[in-house]
Design brief:
single chain; 465 residues; alpha/beta; Peroxisomal Thiolase, Chain A, domain 1; 9-stranded mixed beta sheet; 3-stranded mixed beta sheet; 16 helices; 36% helix; binds 3-hydroxy-3-methylglutaryl-coenzyme A; EC 2.3.3.10; transferase; HMG_CoA_synthase_euk
């Protein structure tokens, strides 16, 4: 039993997984009859990862957890809590976590707390907070926690389809971490909204009000940011760090349904900074923007003038602090719960480790319905430890570049197969196994009682896939 308050609790290891196949968004624009540039420039998406009927949320989680434990040589007995955040429900009352317990069976470790958490894309953050809270609580028994997020984001044919994606992220949580969750700096906003939800339990597709969903996202961002600023300023009064607003962050990650919304979100934060700056100081800090002195948050979600002005105002901040976080979102699409954590991976592989040492990363997590939090992570000052931590992600880019491109026609056919057989039983999937990455769990079959069996593609001998 641990007796001391654990120090520097946070992420000790992180593993990301994305599908081995993708569709090109330029080709998808043509196939869908959308105007050229709508998906690529308008939404900011280049490629969209997708899964055939061979993969489901259980298989994604089995793969990402196995890979994390193997890559970091973590024994199954060293895990004391395992949380799953997902909105891709398969067995309704039976959790994905319980499926993952198969991985722990040989070790005899059944003493693992935690279960699934669901609220659209926010479930992963809730899982991560639960993991952090456990380590920082009197219930902690000294072992690691694992927070796992995974989803398959698919939409019916139409405007929302190009904002799909799929993937998984697993995070090993413990004390003395290279990425530390800053205590007292969490700001949350939760509210009832029907912006995106899944009322048809027989379908993988959500009911979505696209425009409302964007408004909900932006208003949750406003509220979380203001609350975060208040909490930060209260702490800062003690530490005298002297930075407020966007200057306080060295990098900023967002839940990313599509990349363009994130670019607009940076502008939105800058607009908040503007409104929170006294009129006297605005002329100096926001020269040329005085015409927005009387603008309000509520009146400007879709105000083109405000949007454009603050996109321009924040362009340097976006370039320096957020652009690099969008690599996986741009190349894979919306992963739902893992989305914001794929942003963290993109940052870690996109910026030299030395440039992040000792820095503060702001995180905005959003899930429709709605639940949102903004919090911050501080990067360890230990440069050698941080470099070692980041080096574990060397596999990401080669894996991303080894994916197979699939024509939109074939993608559409594979979506129809998923759609038709979503709850079929008995069922044997028809998707190719050969196309999956090494070490991938896949659905072998579903029996007449809907019980799912999984197998794994061969792993590479050193256990690093
Ligand atoms: P839409 O309404 O058909 O698209 O679907 P649009 O007409 O608004 O066009 C999109 C952008 O492309 C616009 O840019 C157009 O001008 C531009 P904007 O004006 O907004 O800056 N455009 C072009 N640009 C260049 N060349 C062209 C061209 N044509 C148009 N030729 C929508 C867009 C996002 C609504 C749809 O895809 C959708 O419903 N997606 C799903 C919902 C979603 O992603 N919402 C985001 C916020 S909610 C959230 O993040 C939660 C979520 O992740 C779920 C969860 O929590 O689990 C979704």
């Amino acid at each position: 039993m641990a007796t001391n308050w654990p120090e520097n609790v946070g992420i000790r290891a992180i593993e990301v997984l994305f599908p081995s196949q993708y569709v090109d968004q330029t080709e998808l624009e043509q196939f869908d009859g959308a105007s050229a540039g709508k998906y690529t420039i308008g939404l900011g998406q280049a490629k969209m990862g997708f899964c055939s009927d061979r993969e489901d949320v259980n298989s994604l989680c089995l793969t990402v957890v196995s890979r994390l434990l193997e890559r970091h040589h973590i024994k199954h007995t060293e895990i004391g809590r395992l949380e799953v955040g997902t909105e891709t429900i398969v067995d309704k009352s039976k959790s994905v976590k319980s499926v993952l317990m198969q991985l722990f069976a040989d070790s005899g470790n059944t003493d693992i707390e935690g279960i699934d958490t669901t609220n659209a894309c926010y479930g992963g953050t809730a899982a991560l907070f639960n993991a952090i809270n456990w380590i920082e609580s009197s219930s902690w028994d000294g072992r690691y926690a694992l927070a796992v997020c995974a989803d398959i984001a698919v939409y019916a044919k139409g405007a929302a389809r190009p904002t799909g994606g799929a993937g998984a992220v697993a995070m090993l949580v413990g004390p003395n971490a290279p990425l530390v969750f800053e205590r007292g700096l969490r700001a949350t906003h939760m509210e009832h909204a029907y912006d995106f939800y899944k009322p048809d339990l027989s379908s993988e597709y959500p009911t979505v009000d696209g425009k409302l969903s964007i408004q909900c996202y932006l208003s949750a961002l406003d509220t979380c940011y203001r609350l975060y600023r208040q909490k930060f300023e209260k702490q800062q009064a003690k530490t005298q760090s002297g930075k407020v607003g966007l200057d306080n962050f060295d990098a900023i990650l967002f839940h990313t349904p599509f990349c363009k919304l994130v670019q607009k979100s940076v502008g939105r934060l800058s607009f908040n900074d503007f409104l929170l700056t006294s009129e006297g100081k605005r002329a100096e800090q926001f020269a040329g923007l005085e015409r927005f002195n009387n603008a309000t948050l509520e009146g400007t979600y879709f105000d083109r003038d405000v949007e454009k002005a603050f996109l321009t105002q924040s362009a340097d901040v976006f370039e320096a602090k957020t652009k690099k976080t969008l690599l996986l979102a741009n190349q894979v699409g919306n992963m739902y719960t893992p989305s914001v954590y794929s942003g963290l991976v993109s940052l870690l592989i996109g910026v030299p480790a030395a440039d992040l040492v000792g820095k503060r990363i702001g995180v905005f997590s959003y899930g429709s319905g709605l639940a949102a939090s903004m919090y911050s992570i501080s990067v360890t000052q230990d440069a050698a430890a941080f470099e070692k931590f980041v080096a574990q992600l060397d596999y990401v880019l080669p894996l991303l570049n080894s994916r197979e491109k699939v024509a939109p026609e074939q993608f559409s056919e594979l979506m129809e197969v998923r759609e038709k057989n979503n709850h079929a039983a008995p069922y044997t999937p028809t998707g190719s196994v050969g196309v999956l990455f090494p070490g991938t769990y896949y659905l072998k079959d579903v029996d007449s009682l809907h019980r799912r069996t999984y197998e794994r593609t061969p792993t590479i001998s050193n256990g690093v896939h």
